[in-house]
Write a structure and sequence with these properties.
Elements lengths: L1 H20 L3 H14 L4 H19 L12
Helix pairs in contact: 1-2, 2-3
Length: 73
């Protein structure tokens, strides 16, 4: 069972990386949150989630006129 959770966590981490690379920050955060939930001691997933949350905070604190006009905004 633990292996299944670890494999699923790695797959979610990879899915988050792919979403992030495509500019889908919210999808990346969601995938990394699930990965960290399944594998809370996985340092890679934890760092990615922290990084993404920081990016979301930075994006949300920028003035509206400085934000790119994307689906993620």
């Amino acid at each position: 069972m633990a292996r299944d959770l670890s494999l699923e966590a790695r797959e979610l981490t990879q899915r988050g990386l792919e979403s992030y690379a495509c500019g889908r920050l919210r999808e990346a955060v969601f995938a990394w949150e699930k990965a960290v939930h399944l594998a809370p001691h996985d340092p890679h997933a934890v760092r990615l989630l922290e990084f993404a949350r920081k990016r979301v905070r930075e994006r949300d604190t920028r003035p509206a006129h400085a934000r790119p006009d994307t689906l993620e905004s």
